[in-house]
Design goal:
mainly alpha, Serine Threonine Protein Phosphatase 5, Tetratricopeptide repeat, Methane Monooxygenase Hydroxylase, Chain G, domain 1, 2 domains, ENTH, membrane
């Protein structure tokens, strides 16, 4: 029965792609190729690149491509198609042009993709993939929320110059958004039952990339906090301690140099001392100054 349903899905893909090719709908054809019904194979880099390429040009062109992608995501009842659409959304976030990324629908809230109740009961395999659809949709939502909050789209490269120009409130808001992404990764489903599924393997790899990128940006901002201790109010010191506590709980989620976590612990202890003393300003001296040296992620 499962093979019959897989065959039906493949036939649907072929028919839809053939129709799009006849009608010369480049964007539709690129989307269908990248989001097939195959439950075990992820979209290729070439297919995702073609999807982005089909959105190059005017704002109207970019808007049409994103609309096609999100419409397919919302309408499909196939967990395989939904996961590949989410990979496509993530690819737009990470690699799309500014115009293309700006078309992504985002209301400023959570669950805007509306996939928290997604269920594909067509086969045991797709039922299992449904759990990944629900979780990965939430991750993509948090990723886009962080990108909107930070004001740029996550890149593994540290942007120290930009961080130094932020206000304390902006810095706190960005760290909160980035840490939320990392915290969410901690809830990733157990992949043991799907370890041979290349589609899930691809998603796990992409999520790990997102975690490392988010954490690298967090450490840039943690370093900036260390250099601003003299400028932080008592209330801001409290908020810094809270976010550092959350960050420390993420140390098992994303594996990086242990020295980086040691630097976070040292900063937290220093800030907590000033908070307990009720000081609103820190008197730093040359012999008692905090310096967080950025280290390469491993």
């Amino acid at each position: 029965m499962r093979k019959v349903k897989e065959l039906i899905g493949i036939m649907k893909d072929k028919a839809s792609q053939g129709k799009a090719a006849i009608l010369s709908k480049r964007a539709t054809l690129s989307l269908l190729r990248a989001t097939s019904h195959d439950s075990f194979t992820p979209p290729t880099r070439e297919q995702l690149s073609m999807l982005l390429y089909s959105g190059d040009g005017s704002r109207a062109t970019a808007s049409a491509v994103v609309e096609l992608l999100t419409e397919r995501l919302q309408r499909t009842q196939s967990s395989a198609v939904a996961l590949k659409c989410l990979i496509g959304v993530r690819h737009v976030i990470k690699h799309g042009s500014f115009i293309l990324r700006d078309q992504l629908p985002y209301s400023g809230g959570r669950n805007y993709l509306n996939l928290s109740k997604f269920r594909d009961k067509s086969s045991p395999v797709r039922w299992e993939l449904s759990r990944w659809v629900r979780w990965y949709a939430k991750h993509v939502e948090q990723l886009l929320w962080a990108c909107r909050s930070v004001g740029f789209f996550l890149d593994a490269a540290a942007e120290e110059e930009r961080a130094s120009g932020l206000t304390n409130d902006e810095l706190l808001r960005e760290v909160d958004a980035l840490v939320t992404v990392i915290e969410g990764i901690g809830g990733i489903p157990d992949a043991a039952s799907t370890e041979r599924n290349k589609l899930i393997t691809e998603i796990v790899g992409l999520v790990e990339e997102d975690g490392v990128a988010a954490l690298s940006e967090v450490f840039v901002r943690v370093k900036e906090f260390g250099e601003r201790l003299e400028c932080l109010s008592y209330e801001e010191l409290v908020e810094v301690v809270n976010v550092l506590n959350r960050l420390e709980k993420c140390r098992e989620i994303v594996m990086v140099s242990e020295r980086l976590w040691e630097s976070v612990r040292e900063l937290k202890e220093k800030v907590e001392v000033y908070r307990e003393q009720g000081k609103t300003r820190v008197r730093a001296t040359n012999s008692d100054s905090f310096a967080l040296t950025p280290l390469p992620l491993q």
